[in-house]
Design brief:
There is one protein chain. This protein is α+β, with helices and mostly antiparallel strands and about 120 residues long. The chain has one domain (about 1-120). The protein is built from two helices and eight strands, in the order βββββαβββα. The strands form three sheets. Strands 5-2-1-6 form a four-stranded antiparallel sheet. The protein has a two-stranded antiparallel sheet with strand order 3-4. Strand 1 (about 1-10) and strand 2 (about 15-25) form a beta hairpin. The longest helix has 14 residues, at about 105-120. The chain is globular and about 45 Å long. The chain starts with a strand and ends with a helix.
Length: about 120
């Protein structure tokens, strides 16, 4: 289950403003490098065509699916602390598939497949 926890104003490459919904996935228990466990939830932004008022009205709603960590090309990310880190993953909303649905790969999955095969080797 995914919850819409917020929204934010963004600017497209063409300089046009738009709004994105901030999605948060389910609670996940992760083991740290030191061996301890901690609770976390993946978050990501989902672009919309909605107005600010509509985005605001969606806060608190839930969607079927989850937010998954997926590999991508390396990029630099500026943390809230001001520290810059290099990441090679991003987060993607994955809708829940009905049990009888045939899953078709999307463009992202098709483009990421050679990368994921290299990672597995």
């Amino acid at each position: 289950m995914v919850t819409i926890i917020n929204y934010k104003e963004c600017v497209s490459q063409e300089g046009k403003p738009f709004y994105a919904l901030v999605l948060q996935g389910d609670l996940d228990i992760v083991q740290s490098k030191e061996g301890g466990f901690y609770a976390t939830a993946n978050k990501m932004s989902l672009s919309t065509t909605f107005s600010e008022e509509i985005c605001r009205s969606f806060i608190g709603r839930t969607l079927q699916g989850n937010v998954k960590k997926v590999p991508c090309a390396e990029y630099e990310y500026l943390k809230d602390t001001g520290e810059t880190v290099t990441l090679s993953h991003t987060y993607q909303y994955v809708p829940e598939q009905p049990a009888n649905a045939v899953q078709q790969p999307n463009a992202f999955q098709e483009n990421a497949m050679p990368f994921m095969l290299k990672m597995a080797a």
